């Protein structure tokens, strides 16, 4: 039995809980009442917003995907038809996974699941057999929507392999190509079914399960409700210079919390539109921003670097752009200053957050406040933030702990919550920071063993546990060191069993054969005679990291 479905499991370990729509969730009555009282949580859902938009503004464009422009009427009709098709195959409360690029069909799937009272489970398209199998089994997915082929990778073939390893495999639905033995998306949405009343939705029920890498070596399913996401959108609307009619360029993956809310939630809750890109091309992005008059964009450091360079090449200062928020990895202050100086009117700022507490800080969005936008990670918005050192609050450097109406309501597996929260219900991020000017946060390091490369979280333990099975490796430690392009670079420090030991290519072949996503593969290998350890035999990763960083600088 999934422990998340058992409200009696270790109640003291996992904090106060409440059973909502069949799932046991972390719950605090006082904070819930405050969120409702402040209007950050509401009794309606995105399904209500979609239906209302279709009635009141049927021709308003919500989503742009290449030449395809999706209006409110069309999206509601397509999502309603798909919701009925899914309800004919699975009950409300089921989980709907999708492993898609930034395609307009993903919005239909997301909203169809919402209308059907099902939880969505976005999965990174860059993941491969191993991670995909784990997630589908862990979340008990009932549907998985995939491309037939994308970037020369055959997803239909991969899912054919994956589902044979599952006791209760999901229905595999294939988009834009040959479905093979699976369901074709077109046939699913076009096959007539007997319409049934759509379920009444509980706004505090789980509507998203999104996986994030952790220090335990396996991913953890983060639970968000209709209301936690509603609070997040309210925060963006209040603090990110958003007005009805604004337009977000969305190249960030829709399988990330950021990409999903800009593409799926904002257009309905904020009156915006989204222009999606299924692969990042900075020169194309510049043309799109100017042609579509895009006002907002968010992304990790490589996105901002490339966009700035492309704008300079094209001789445009992107006059429509109002805001660029940059996070997900180390962000050089000089890059923020350069971009803010070049773009005609855009505020450019660093932000900080996580899948668990999205947009913990809102950045520094006041006009002309480039100093705080460049040199800090911004001030908190709706989230309460404290820094702790060994459990005690500190005004100096400490671990970032955050809680707020946009925070997760727990993990899919309750045991993952054991050390994730403190006694006051704050989420312990594992990141270190200090305060500047009283209310601005500066992230200084990481207490948890996670590598963030190009905005993607990598669990070193997961990779170490696999590499130790390599016949030429006696010991291995995977660490992240600063990289000006990607934020961090994954380096494998290896003690070989004999001979020269494996190189990067050999590690890549070994991990790919195990079904590991390519973005998790170390980019560098260093051979050591012995890894530094303390008296208890624990590998001292900080020493490895310091040595490699110093070598990189010299």
Would you tell me the structural class of the helices and strands?
Answer: alpha/beta
Enumerate the spans where pLDDT stays under 50 for 5 or more consecutive residues: 1-14
Strand proportion, as a percent range, falls in: 15-25%
- Mean pLDDT over the residues: 92
For the sheet with most strands, the description reads:
7 strands, mixed
**CATH superfamily name of one domain?**
ANL, C-terminal domain
CATH architecture assignment name of one domain: 2-Layer Sandwich
SS element count, helices: 17
Distance between the termini: 54 Å
Rg, rounded, reads: 23 Å
Which strand order do you get reading across the main beta sheet? 4-3-15-14-16-17-18
Short description:
This protein has 554 residues and is α/β, with parallel strands linked by helices.
Provide the fold topology:
Elements: H1 11-14, E1 17-20, E2 23-26, H2 29-37, H3 46-56, E3 61-65, E4 68-71, H4 72-87, E5 95-98, H5 104-115, E6 119-122, H6 129-139, E7 141-147, E8 149-150, E9 153-154, H7 155-163, E10 171-175, E11 183-184, H8 185-190, E12 206-212, E13 220-225, H9 226-239, E14 247-250, H10 257-269, E15 273-276, H11 282-292, E16 296-299, H12 301-314, E17 323-326, H13 333-342, E18 347-350, H14 370-375, E19 384-389, E20 392-393, E21 398-403, E22 427-436, E23 440-446, E24 451-453, E25 456-458, H15 460-467, E26 473-483, E27 487-496, H16 504-513, E28 524-527, H17 541-553
Question: How would you characterize this protein structure?
Answer:
This protein is α/β, with parallel strands linked by helices. It has 17 helices and 28 strands. A 7-stranded mixed β-sheet has the order 4-3-15-14-16-17-18, with helices on both faces. The longest helix has 16 residues. The relative contact order is 0.10. The N terminus is likely disordered.
């Amino acid at each position: 039995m999934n422990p998340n479905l058992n409200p009696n499991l270790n109640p003291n370990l996992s904090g106060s809980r409440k059973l909502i729509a069949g799932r046991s969730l972390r719950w605090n009555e006082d904070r819930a009442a405050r969120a409702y009282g402040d209007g950050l949580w509401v009794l309606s859902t995105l399904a209500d917003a979609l239906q209302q938009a279709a009635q009141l503004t049927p021709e308003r464009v919500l989503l742009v995907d290449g030449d395809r422009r999706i209006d409110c009427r069309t999206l509601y009709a397509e999502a309603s038809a798909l919701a009925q098709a899914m309800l004919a195959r699975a009950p409300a409360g089921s989980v709907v996974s999708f492993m898609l690029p930034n395609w307009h069909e993903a919005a239909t799937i997301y909203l169809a699941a919402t209308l059907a009272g099902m939880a969505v489970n976005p999965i990174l398209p860059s993941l491969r057999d191993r991670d995909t199998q784990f997630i589908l089994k862990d979340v008990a997915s009932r549907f998985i929507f995939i491309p037939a082929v994308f970037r020369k990778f055959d997803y239909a073939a991969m899912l054919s392999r994956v589902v044979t390893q599952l006791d209760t495999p999901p229905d595999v639905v294939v988009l834009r190509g040959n479905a093979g033995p699976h369901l074709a998306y077109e046939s699913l949405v076009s096959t007539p079914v007997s319409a049934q009343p759509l379920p009444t939705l509980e706004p505090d029920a789980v509507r998203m399960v999104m996986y994030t890498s952790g220090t335990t070596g396996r991913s953890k399913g983060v639970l968000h409700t209709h209301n936690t996401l509603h609070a997040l959108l309210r925060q963006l609307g209040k603090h990110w210079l958003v007005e009805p009619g604004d337009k977000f360029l969305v190249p960030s993956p829709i399988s990330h919390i950021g990409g999903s809310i800009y593409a799926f939630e904002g257009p309905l809750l904020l009156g915006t539109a989204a222009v999606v890109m299924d692969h990042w091309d900075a020169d194309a992005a510049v043309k799109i921003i100017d042609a579509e008059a895009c006002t907002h964009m968010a992304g990790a450091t490589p996105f901002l670097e490339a966009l700035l360079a492309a704008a300079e090449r094209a001789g445009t200062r992107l006059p429509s752009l109002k805001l660029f928020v940059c996070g997900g990895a180390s962000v050089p202050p000089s890059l923020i200053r350069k971009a803010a100086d070049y773009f005609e009117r855009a505020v450019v700022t660093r932000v900080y957050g996580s899948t668990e507490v999205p947009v913990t800080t809102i950045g520094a969005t006041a006009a002309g406040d480039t100093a705080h936008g460049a040199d800090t990670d911004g001030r908190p918005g709706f989230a309460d933030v404290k820094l702790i050192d060994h459990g005690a609050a500190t005004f100096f450097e400490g671990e970032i702990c955050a809680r707020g109406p946009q925070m997760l309501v727990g993990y899919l597996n309750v045991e993952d919550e054991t050390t994730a929260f403190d006694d006051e219900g704050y989420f312990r991020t594992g990141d270190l920071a200090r305060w500047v000017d009283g209310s601005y946060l500066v992230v200084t390091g990481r207490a948890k063993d996670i590598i963030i490369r190009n905005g993607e979280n990598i669990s070193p333990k997961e990779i170490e546990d696999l590499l130790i099975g390599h016949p030429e490796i006696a010991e291995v430690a995977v660490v992240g060191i600063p990289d000006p392009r990607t934020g961090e670079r994954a380096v494998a420090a290896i003690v070989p069993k004999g001979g020269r030991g494996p190189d990067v290519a050999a590690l890549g072949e070994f991990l790919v054969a195990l079904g590991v996503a390519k973005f998790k593969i170390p980019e560098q290998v260093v051979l050591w005679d012995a890894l530094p350890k303390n008296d208890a035999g624990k590998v001292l990763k900080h020493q490895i990291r310091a040595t490699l960083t110093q070598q990189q600088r010299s």
